[in-house]
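Dear H.,

Thanks for agreeing to be a second pair of eyes. The structure we're designing against is below in token form, covering all 258 positions.
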């Protein structure tokens, strides 16, 4: 295996990102964020990529958050590092292709941000989650923007202020993750989801994701107006015509992303 801090591989129309810092509990370094930006650009431009998959190396940790002992927390690197992380969360959240997180162990601090930025999150049922920043005199600032868009306020504040770890059942109940499965079934569940996503219309999912992202904080009436326009745009695509035709002809559609 390469010693690069972030591995990137494309297979079966899927771009797989693996944080490759197992000895550092897959913590986030400036190098990891730089590579994420580069490879996300590659994945967006590639017609061969229809879905993005993010995970961590090994079987203990998805991502433990920022590398507190690294350059990111030094006086010179803090401002740049925090800005890079905020931009990475924006990039993943607004990515035009579906994103799936495979949580293979502990997911803490900044790792929660990476996970929550993804559209679908599948976790091992023995994984642990949390925002322990308060325990070292910090606070989950940028992550909070995503936490409060996924979790009810009281539950979010309890997790943030106590800094305690949650189990996968609690994470599902709170809305932090999509579902939790056994260690033995994790890869099979992920592959099933990825295989399903690559068969969907790329242009349909792109327009749909952009529409939902844009209307998230809009007033109700404005959101409906935007979604109406986006639906008109979507129904004008070749994929929409193919999908409807295939439905009428009782066959599987062949989507080309146009």
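And this is the sequence the design step returned. I haven't edited it by hand at all.
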């Amino acid at each position: 295996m390469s010693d690069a801090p972030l591995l990137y591989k494309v297979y079966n129309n899927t771009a797989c990102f693996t944080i490759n810092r197992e000895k550092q509990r897959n913590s986030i370094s400036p190098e990891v964020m730089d590579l994420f930006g580069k490879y996300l650009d590659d994945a967006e431009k590639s017609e061969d990529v229809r879905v993005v998959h993010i995970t961590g190396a090994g079987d203990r940790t998805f991502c433990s958050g920022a590398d507190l002992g690294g350059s990111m927390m030094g006086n010179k690197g803090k401002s740049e590092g925090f800005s890079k992380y905020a931009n990475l969360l924006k990039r993943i959240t607004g990515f035009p292709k579906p994103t799936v997180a495979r949580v293979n162990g502990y997911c803490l601090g900044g790792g929660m941000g990476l996970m929550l930025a993804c559209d679908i999150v599948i976790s091992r049922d023995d994984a642990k989650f949390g925002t322990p920043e308060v325990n070292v005199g910090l606070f989950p600032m940028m992550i909070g923007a995503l936490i409060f868009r996924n979790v009810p306020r009281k539950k979010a504040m309890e997790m943030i202020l106590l800094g305690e770890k949650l189990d996968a059942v609690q994470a599902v109940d709170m809305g932090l993750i999509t579902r939790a499965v056994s260690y033995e079934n994790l890869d099979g569940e992920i592959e099933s989801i990825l295989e399903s996503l690559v068969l969907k219309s790329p242009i349909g999912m792109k327009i749909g994701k952009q529409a939902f992202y844009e209307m998230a904080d809009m007033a109700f009436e404005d959101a409906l107006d935007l979604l109406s326009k986006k639906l008109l745009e979507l129904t004008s695509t070749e994929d929409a015509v193919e999908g409807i035709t295939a439905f009428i002809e009782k066959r599987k559609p062949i989507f080309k992303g146009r």
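Two observations from my side: The CA atoms of residues 5 and 20 lie 5 Å apart. The first helix runs from residue 30 to 45.

Warmly,
E.
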